[in-house]
Amino acid sequence: MAISRAQLLKELLPGLNALFGLEYAKYENEHEQVYETETSDRSFEEEVKLSGFGQASVKDEGSAINYDTAQESFSTRYNHETIGMGFSITEEAMEDNLYDSLSARYTKALARSMAYTKQVKAANPLNQGFSGGNFNSGDGVDLFSTAHPLVSGGTNSNTFATQADLNETSLENAVIQIAGWTDERGLLIAAKPRKLIVPPAGMFTASRILESDGRPASSDNDLNALKANGSIPEGYVVNHFLTDTNAFFIMTDVPNGFKHFARTPLETSMDGDFDTGNVRYKARERYSFGVSDPLGAFGSSGSS
Q1: Per DSSP, what are the bridge partners of residue 289?
Q2: Tens digits of per-residue pLDDT, 59-88?
Q3: More confident call, 297 vs 3
Q4: Pick from 211, 171, 209, 214: nearest CA to 193
Q5: Beta-ladder partners of 188
Q6: Cβ atoms of residues 241 and 122 within 8 Å
Q7: HSE (side-chain half, CA atoms, 13 Å) at 277
Q8: pLDDT tens digits, 82-102
């Protein structure tokens, strides 16, 4: 439906002092704290995880050496989505000198809507990656699972067996668990935490845990080991699009984890409709968010 004079009656009356409601500040590009961005020129992108070799065996004198076989583990497909929205202004509204004010204000509102939608899409793997959600890893299990299957027959876990809220103990346990991750053949990998991602409700807890010199919430004069050891070297950031107030996530240095493919950047256009005389505006963008290696992050949905 086109924006008409009936929808904006007050703007036609004398005595109008101010128009407001479209100039709020917005949270911008929070996905950049989670995702590695790459460009794409194809309809979809696919990434494959490879399996290396197992631990070498002792070769007895005079005996044949053992041979191992490399193979693919699993693949992840990124299907780009086209996101778009538009609005139109009636010919009559333009005739009554509303064109300039409407086009300027509502193109800003359109950009705000597109930016907001992108952040919601980016947060979806984090919000939906636990049991009961609808975002799986390429290995066929929940993105955050205690049983990511390995070619060797073992598993990796990037969540707690019993979900826990963010506190000193749970963060230490997550760091320890990350240190025990292996590759597809069971060889230890030197995975390390990078940064903590929390919802707004967790920012003060995160600050106390990571920035206090002494142990948080303790009367003892013990060292804050998380800070002293530099366990989370990039500190914490707040993602305002996380839906669970108790959840927290640790991004790791494992390569090819969370990926954002930009197929078509944000573009806007306008044209006139011959039949109605209305002017139409639209915005369009095409992209995908996903995860290649689930070891790119450790997550907890919280205890409640």
Answers
A1: 260
A2: 888 899 898 888 889 999 999 999 999 888
A3: 297
A4: 171
A5: 182
A6: yes
A7: 8
A8: 999 988 877 776 665 555 666
Tell me how far apart the alpha carbons of residues 106 and 75 are, in angstroms, rounded to a whole number.
Answer: 42
CB 149 within 8 A of CB 295: no
E-only strand ranges, the chain: 36-39, 44-51, 71-79, 81-89, 148-149, 155-156, 193-198, 236-238, 248-252, 258-272, 279-291, 297-300
Q: What pLDDT score was predicted for residue 286?
A: 96
Give the mean model confidence (pLDDT) for residues 45-57.
Answer: 90
Report DSSP state, residue 94: H
The Cα 193–Cα 252 span in angstroms is 4
> Residue 52 — very low, low, confident or very high, per pLDDT cuts 50/70/90?
confident
CB contact set of 240 (below 8 Å; sequence gap of 6+)? 27, 30, 119, 199, 200
Write the pLDDT tens digit of every residue in 188-206: 999 999 999 999 999 999 9
Give the CA-trace dihedral at 84, 90, 95, 101, to 10 degrees.
-40
| pLDDT band at 22; cut points 50, 70, 90 | low
Residues 6+ apart with CB under 8 A from 148: 137, 139, 141, 155, 156, 157, 158, 294, 295
CA-only gyration radius of the chain, Å? 26
Query: Would you state the structure tokens that stand for residue 17, as one six-digit string?
Result: 């002092």
In one-letter notation, the amino acid at residue 191 is A
Tell me, what's the pLDDT at 111? 86
How far, CA to CA in Å, does 248 sit from each of 177, 182, 203, 254?
15, 23, 10, 18
This prediction has a pTM of 0.88
Residue type, 145: S
HSE-up (13 A, CA, CB side) for residue 148: 31
Relative to beta strand 236-238, strand 193-198 is parallel
Are the CB atoms for 179 and 157 separated by under 8 Å? no
